[in-house]
Amino acid sequence: MNTTGSYKKWLESAYYFFATEGSGKLSIKALAKQCGLPRTNFYYYFHDKEELLDKIIELHFNTTTENINKELEQRLHSFIPDLYLILYDFKIGVQFAKQMFNNRDIPRFNKAYKHGLAISADLIVPHFKDFLNIDLPDKTVKLLWFTLCDTWYSRLNFNDFSVESMSALSYEIIESILPLINDKVSK
User: What are the structural domain ranges in the chain?
Assistant: First the structure.
């Protein structure tokens, strides 16, 4: 038996399942069916579903988030459309992040969601700041960025996952927070 292959299959299937269905529907039985592996094989690699959830969060940061950040470093020159061109290439990773956002009432997901935003913020905030053409401390702009992200994830629709729709959503949210920004700048 190829244990490395089976372990990877469990992880990748769980990652995809969580991203597309959420944690509520994630079960060992459903994963076994998706993987084509016996349920008992699951316990060879994981104690329980909780350990699996920790491992897929770890997978998210060690692969998807790391790869997105590499792309941000290379391709992010202007906030819109570059950010959304990059995110478009990582749809499952964005879906995974949205599921963490949707499950923020569970401490592990809330912590992971916030950590994910923080990891990318240093790469995105300077471009966000330039886009808004504001002269505020980075710490303040990060808070605005986090607000934008929370609102964006709450309204993101994967039935219309296009660069145009993601950009339009961002523009709409920015327009709603612009008075707060302008108020802060004028003080």
Answer: 54-186
